[in-house]
Amino acid sequence: MNLLKHDDLHWNHFTGEAQFDYPISYWGSVLGARKDGHVDLLYRWDPHSACHLHRHTAAISSLVLEGELTVIDIDLETGEEAGRVVKPAGTWVHKEPGDVHIEVGGPEGALVLFILYAPNGSLVEGLAKDGRVLDHQTMEPILKSQARRAAI
Question: Which of these CATH numbers, 2.50.20.10, 3.90.420.10, 1.10.246.90, 2.60.120.10, describes 12-151?
Fold first, then answer.
């Protein structure tokens, strides 16, 4: 699979209310998932667009393949920005679960490979600005979807 020629992948488009004065528009595609808790995802951001505020509940490695991705850490006690890192193409990072952040595509957007390890099946929590958990994503629907596609 050539990750830079990704038009044939099944993409889910995510939008929503703007948080922190950023428009939200990003796309995700599952590359593969295994019952042992490993999942590989490809995400792309539209230019100057963000993802929803979230907290990873799995260990995650990421590699920026194209464009630029800005990660903005948020302090849930104050609701304020706690840090900002700009990741140009070629940047690889590994993080353990727990940090609260949003990600924003650069002037040309961003294409990022994510490799998650979730032995307990928990991937990410979508958060409100006040820290309330709005949704909790797990491996289960990904594995079910993958099994349905394999059966076709």
Answer: 2.60.120.10
